[in-house]
Amino acid sequence: MFGSECIPCIFNQALKTYRVIGYSDEVIIEKLWSIMKLVNKLDYKLTAPEIYFTVYKWIREDSGLNDPYYKIKKMWNRWVLDKASTIKKMIIESKDPIFTGLKISLAGNIIDYGALDDIKFEDTLNQVLSSKLTIDDYQVFRNKLDYAKSILFVLDNAGEAVLDKIFIESILNETRISKVYIGVREEPFINDVTIEDIRFLGFDELGDIEIISFPVDINKHSTYLNEGRYSQVFRLADTTVLKGQGNYELFHNFKDIFFALIAKCKPVASHLNVDVGSQVFKFNK
C-alpha cells in the first residue's frame, strides 16, 4: 500500500524528529539530504514503516540519541494517566464496557498530542464515542472472546497505551481471559511504546502478562517474516489485536487478526476502502 504520499511523509517524520532533537534549520537541511541518499538505496516495494525503520535507526546513530522522543513520551504517558479515572468511570457506566473500551482505545489513536488540553481531549472522546465504526467487526470479536482464555495485544504509541490498557482491563473484567501477551517495540521507534513505557504505565497490574518484543531493525524484521516468526507470535493467543496504522501496514497480510486503527492517510484508507479519518476495527479472516 506504499503510495506517492508516503515519500514526503517519511521526510516529514524525519523533519519532526530533528526538530524534537533541537537542530537548527541549517543542520536539518544537511541531515535531510543525507536521508534522501539513504532512502534512494532502499527497495520501494517496502512499506512506509519498513523504510522508516532504516531512517530512524540512522537518525538515532547519527545523533547519538538512543530515544529522541523519550521526554515527549513521558509527558504523553503522564498526561493521559491523569485522565484514567474519568475514562474508567465512563466504561464502567456504559451498556457495553468492552465496546466502550474499544472506542476509547481508538480515540487515543487520533488525539492531537501537539496541543494537549482538557477540552480537546474530552471533545475527541465524545466525537469518537458518538460516531460509528466504518469497518465494524466488533461482534466477531465478542464471539471470539466468549471462548478465549488468552489475548495478544500489540501496542502503538505512548500516551495512547494508557487507553489500550484500560481497554484490556475491560476485556479481562467481562471475559474468562486470564493470560495477556503485550507486544511492544524492541527498541525506541519514534513515539511507539517500549518495555520501559509499559512498566511505567503499570501493565503488570493486568495479572499474568508476557511481553513480546517486535523488531524495528529492517534486517531482523525481514528475517522474522521469512522464517515465519511473526506467524508463530500471532498464534500464541486465542485472540490477537494489533493497534494503529503502522501495524496494519506491516502485518495486513496476516490472518486471524483484529486491526484497530484510524485511517490517517490516503494510501491506508484506499487499501481499506474507507475515507481518511475513518475508525476501523477489522478482522482479517
Task: Say what the CATH topology of the largest domain is.
Answer: Rossmann fold
SS-based structural class? Answer: alpha/beta
Number of domains: 2
Strand percent estimate: 5-15%
Give a count of the beta strands, DSSP E runs of length 2 or more. 7
- Percent of residues in helical segments? 40-55%
Rg, alpha carbons: 19 Å
CATH class of the largest domain: Alpha Beta
In the predicted model, the low-confidence regions spanning at least 5 consecutive residues are none
Major sheet:
7 strands, mixed
Q: Which H/E pattern describes the elements?
A: HHHHHHHEHEHEHEHHEHEHE
The CATH architecture of the largest domain can be given as 3-Layer(aba) Sandwich
- The CATH superfamily of the largest domain bears the name Uncharacterised protein PF01937, DUF89, domain 3
Gross morphology? globular
Please identify the oligomeric state: single chain
Strand order within the widest beta sheet: 1-7-6-5-2-3-4
Number of alpha- plus pi-helical segments: 14
Description:
- The chain is α/β, with parallel strands linked by helices.
- It folds into two domains: 6-63; 70-284, Rossmann fold (3-Layer(aba) Sandwich).
- Helices cover 53% and strands 13% of the residues.
- The protein has a seven-stranded mixed beta sheet, sandwiched between helices.
- Helix 13 links the parallel strand 5 (239-243) and strand 6 (257-262).
- Helix 4 (70-81) crosses helix 9 (160-174).
- The longest helix has 16 residues, at 6-21.
- It is globular and about 55 Å long.
- The mean pLDDT is 92.
Provide keyphrases for this structure:
285 residues; Rossmann fold; alpha/beta; 7-stranded mixed beta sheet; 13% strand; 2 domains
